[in-house]
Amino acid sequence: MGLLLLMAVAGAIAVLGLWYLLFAAYNRRKGSQTLRWVQSACGGRGRIVDSHWLSSSRLHARLQLPARSFENVRVTVKLRPRALPVQWLLSWWRNQKETLTFEADLGGSPSFHLEVVRHRWSAHSRGVTARRDPREWDIFQPGPVILTTRTHWQQDHTPEINALMVVRERNVLQVRFCPGSPQFSATVALDALADPDSASGFLTTLRELAAGASAHRQ
Q: Which spans are transmembrane here (predicted)?
């Protein structure tokens, strides 16, 4: 009985070890492919300087771009933790997206803190069994919701409004500005970079977001 238990434990360890090696290698291939997407999205105006893995699912890299664009550029790729079965199942259950976060300094410190998060919610009623004509549904498209700590809010084209509009129209999940380094960061879903058309506008989108902060400093 003891021998069978020992063999079962050894077998389980072997399976987990094989699982880790296979899926860690899968993530490494996907991370390398993502960095190639990023370099391709730069259109020849940028290159990956170096990269290293923070864990089996997080890849960090430094990116060199023309000086007039961004400074101290780095990207972090967050993949699903496939090499760790329990964490992978939790990630899958929570429907967590694989993302790329772009961080950089802007050459001048923004005078404000701003964080824009893009969320979508959907709901349905399980208690309704009869089908309803789709034409009877009332569809509403609300505008951006702004939570601010400012005592006085100016109703003009501030960087906040510009960032909200860009995030709403593009495949950007989160944007952050702050006076300290990194002064600018933006998070996008990896599947958005897989599409050539979306990837080609990746750097343009980031420049549009950063342009609002630059204009605000002037």
A: 6-26
